[in-house]
Design a protein that fits this description.
By secondary structure, the chain is α+β, with helices and mostly antiparallel strands. It folds into three domains: 96 residues, Beta Barrel (Elongation Factor Tu (Ef-tu), domain 3); 69 residues, RNA polymerase II/Efflux pump adaptor protein, barrel-sandwich hybrid domain (OB fold (Dihydrolipoamide Acetyltransferase, E2P), Beta Barrel), CATH 2.40.50.100; 114 residues.
Length: 328
């Protein structure tokens, strides 16, 4: 009898079968979590090259290292550029010296030399004048001929002209050069200064520095290699050039705007991170093969790019898959 009473308290099998559909309906009535969108990390590399050809003399970075803006990346041979800069510098010094000389006139010793010549000429003229006066008295007394007096008069005129010439030379020696000569010398100095600036630029191009902070993605030459002009020597990936790319189905496209913040996560990255939408494609495309699934294989999607926060960007690597959650 005890076994019979226990058997009677068990629910019938058909009652359990009737409850299963109800339980399934109750489970389906709960809120469904939004499925994250598939995406990946993309990087825009900065490819650093030298504009001139030459032998790679020094490579200051290695693949995978970190560099800061202004840090040296590589150096090409530059002996020829150093010699060219020295030549341009010496030419500038010579042009400036010529210009200064034209602006200041002759040096004091040169002016003094001309002044001494003037004093000698004045003394000679005084002597000629005294001789002429004496000979003129003798001519009046009939002791000398008129031809002899004429010779003395001509010598006095020559000495007087010499004095006037040297006076003008003294004044000229104290004066700077003519304005046209000064302008020409100034133009030569300016041209030499520009030539020196060009030499400095050429020399600077042989030692290339990092244009921004970033990670050294790869190097393409080793020390001793001949680097052709324009060849990329190193590629950098600044954190600001890292972005998250994902594809949004067309029904959700209208809810997105540039500047909105999305959340994304990746394997082994820890807590979810934030990124700001920077680009939304204006053309639809089919779901990329790497993101295919049975549910969305034939649906159209739109490419969206988002910039991660600075702290998150340095933890990401190009090609890394991510899961993106759109803002609610």
């Amino acid at each position: 009898m005890a076994d019979a009473s226990c058997h009677e308290r068990r629910p019938p099998r058909y009652a359990l079968a009737a409850l299963l559909p109800c339980l399934s309906l109750l489970c389906g009535c709960g809120p469904r979590a939004e499925q994250p969108l598939q995406g990946y990390v993309e990087g825009e590399y900065v490819r650093v090259a030298a504009p001139f050809a030459g032998t790679l003399q020094e490579l200051s970075v290695q693949r995978g290292g970190e560099v800061t803006a202004g840090a040296p990346l590589f150096t090409l041979e530059r002996e020829n550029e150093i010699a060219g800069r020295r030549q341009a510098e010496q030419q500038l010094q010579a042009a400036n010296a010529r210009l200064a000389n034209l602006k200041t006139g002759k040096r004091p010793p040169e002016v003094e030399t001309v002044a001494e010549q003037l004093r000698q000429a004045m003394a000679a003229r005084e002597l000629s004048a005294a001789n002429f006066r004496r000979q003129e008295s003798l001519y009046k007394s009939g002791f000398i001929s008129g031809a002899a007096l004429d010779d003395l008069r001509m010598r006095l005129k020559n000495d007087d002209a010499r004095v006037q010439e040297l006076r003008a030379a003294v004044e000229t020696a104290k004066m700077p050069a003519r304005p046209d000569e000064i302008r020409a010398a100034q133009a030569d100095a300016d041209a030499a200064r520009q030539a020196l600036a060009q030499a400095d630029w050429r020399l600077g191009q042989r030692a290339v520095t990092a244009p921004a902070n970033g990670r050294v993605s790869d190097t393409y030459f080793v020390v001793g290699d001949w680097v052709p002009a324009g060849a990329v020597v190193a590629s950098l990936l600044p954190p600001a050039n890292i972005k998250v790319r994902f594809f949004v189905p067309e029904p959700k496209l209208g809810t997105l705007r540039p500047g909105q913040v999305v959340r994304f996560s990746c394997d082994g990255c820890g807590d979810a991170m934030s990124a700001t939408i920077s680009f939304i494609a204006d053309r639809a495309e089919f779901t990329p093969p790497v993101l295919y699934s049975k549910e969305n294989r034939a649906k159209l999607v739109y490419l969206v790019e988002a910039k991660p926060e600075a702290g998150a960007a340095i933890r990401l690597n190009p090609g890394q898959p991510v899961d993106v959650v759109l803002p609610s």
